[in-house]
Specification:
alpha/beta, Nucleotidyltransferase, domain 5, 5-stranded mixed beta sheet, 7 helices, 5 strands
C-alpha cells in the first residue's frame, strides 16, 4: 500500500519496546513516489541481510528520513510506552521536510503537530511505515552489536537485549549492567538476587 504521490506522508515505526536492555528507537520516513523501493516489508519478517540492503536503498532514495531514540534512563523515568512515543516525536521533528500527514504503526498517537493516522499492522502493509520499521531495526541492531563489545557477557549481539533464555541466565548470574532497564520486572528481580552461590562478585 502506497501513501499517495501528491502529499508528503511520513511513516513512523519503533523497535525495541520488549528488550530488557538498550534504548528504544523510532524512525520516520517520507518516501519518494518517483523512486519506489521493491521488497519493503515488516522488518521482523526480513533477514538481516535483506534489512541492510533495503535500509541502504531507503537512505539513498527516500525524500527524507530520521532515526531517533529514547535512552534507558528515559525508559525507566517515563515508562516504555511514553519513551517510545518520545522517540517517535523526536524522529518526526528531525525530518528535513514537513509532512502533510504522519502515519504511525500501532494504536497510540505520539502527539506530533501534524495530522496523524494510526494503522495496526501498518509495518506489514504500508510502504512508508515498513521503511521506518527497517531503519529503526537496523540502527538499533547496529548499536546492540557495538554494546555487545562493551558488555560481552549478555549475548547482546545475538539477542539484541531481548529476554532470551541465555540473556535471562546471564542477568541472574551477573546482575544488570549499565544498559539494563531497571523498570522492567526481570531486571528489578535480578537486582535483589543473591548471587553468592554462583561466584559472582
Amino acid at each position: 500500500m502506497g501513501a499517495g504521490a501528491s502529499r508528503l506522508i511520513a511513516g513512523v515505526d519503533e523497535v525495541g519496546r520488549g528488550p530488557l536492555a538498550g534504548p528504544v528507537y523510532a524512525a520516520a520516513v517520507i518516501l519518494d513516489p518517483h523512486q519506489p523501493i521493491d521488497g519493503l516489508a515488516d522488518s521482523k519478517t526480513l533477514s538481516a541481510r535483506e534489512r541492510e540492503r533495503l535500509a541502504l536503498q531507503i537512505r539513498h532514495h527516500a525524500l527524507c528520513y530520521a532515526v531517533a531514540s529514547a535512552s534507558v534512563a528515559e525508559i525507566d523515568a517515563l515508562n516504555i510506552l511514553q519513551a517510545t512515543l518520545l522517540a517517535m516525536r523526536r524522529a518526526v521533528a528531525a525530518l528535513s521536510s514537513v509532512p502533510d500527514e504522519v502515519w504511525v504503526d500501532g494504536n497510540r498517537a505520539p502527539g506530533v503537530a501534524y495530522p496523524t493516522r494510526l494503522f495496526v499492522g501498518g509495518d506489514a502493509r504500508i510502504d512508508c511505515i515498513s521503511a521506518a520499521s527497517i531503519l529503526a531495526k537496523t540502527t538499533r541492531d547496529a548499536l546492540m552489536h557495538a554494546l555487545a563489545l562493551r558488555y560481552p557477557d549478555y549475548g547482546l549481539a545475538d539477542n539484541k537485549g531481548y529476554p532470551s533464555p541465555a540473556h535471562r541466565q546471564a542477568l541472574h548470574r551477573l546482575g544488570p549492567c549499565a544498559i539494563h532497564r531497571r523498570s522492567f520486572a526481570p531486571v528489578r528481580a535480578a537486582l535483589t538476587e543473591d548471587r553468592s552461590t554462583s561466584g559472582a562478585a
